[in-house]
Amino acid sequence: MKSDPTAPRSSKKATSFGKFQIWLLALGLAGLLTAGGIYNQSYLKEGFQVLRSQGAMAALTFFQSKGESNDNVFGTAWAAYRHGDYRQAEELCKQLLRSPGLNDQARANYLIGELNTIGGDFETAREHLLTALAIYETMGKTESQFKSQMALAKLHLSQKDLANASYYLNLAQTREGAWQNPYFLYFQSQLEFLRGNMASALSLALEREKHMGDDLSGYAGVYSDIGFYYGLTGELDLCAAYTAKAQAFAEEQDDLSASMHNAINQCLYLKLNDRPFDHLREAIVAFAHETNDTKLMDAMVFVDRYTVPSASDDVLYSVSNTLTDGEEVATPPHSATTRSPKALADHFK
After folding, report:
1. Longest pairwise C-alpha distance within the chain
2. Where are the domains of the chain?
3. What burial letters (b/e) apply to 240-267, b meaning 16+ CB within 10 Å?
4. pLDDT in tens, 264-290
């Protein structure tokens, strides 16, 4: 016999039902707390501001303390990537790939593509980046399309495929404000470097510096690039000055990856002054192998093969200084990576 839903309930039943309502409320609150609410809400914007102002390590700590929403997982992955912990970044991205959300799929594919570009697996990188670009086009996210186009340009620059790099940069430059975007300017300067146009590469790097804004985490890179190009154009005092500025930012951000890339400048400076740099090469090569950073290894090979042009040369760069595919430098003892950014700076003095 079914009970009459309109019949009055006893006080005992009312009490039980009240407890049931409280339980449901608590369950709903728990869901809120664990699915994007108070404990697990997105802190992406705030975390990226920490990244810009305090560096990758601070951002990594920030995101790791803020729960496990998909936004926070991606934030942690991005901070790990910027910090040079590529393995952690990839593991977190693979976690995001299991999400049904298009945005999670797109940004996970994007970052995996970036990581595979660094690691030299260019075919896998291209597949992931094209997937990310297609999703962003479907979603109508023009800013993310712009970033994906730049990432594809970076991929082809890493392969020294200048034609396809130019293709994606030409697509990206149609976006309003592209020529004020520091990352777009970075890839344009890389393109000019690979074309052998050092003066143009330097000019673009100096223009990039003007548009860095409050992204303190990026200043080590832009100053390092400027110093490198000054070295290649024969301005050794400016090479040293900008390299020192880059190292100061790398130390402030506790960014060992930036320090290692900046150490390339130190090697170039020492070589141009006929001074040895074996101690730096050892640390750079060990770090490049440990992190699978092919760009860093390419840069080290470039400096090792670089020869100072004669006064009759039109540019301070020639085809003889380009890298041979697959060329490597012998791996030194693993202990070489124990040098701190401060120690690297000391070697430069």
Report:
1. 106
2. 196-349
3. bebbbbbbbbbbebbbbbbbbbbbbbbb
4. 999 999 999 999 999 999 999 999 998
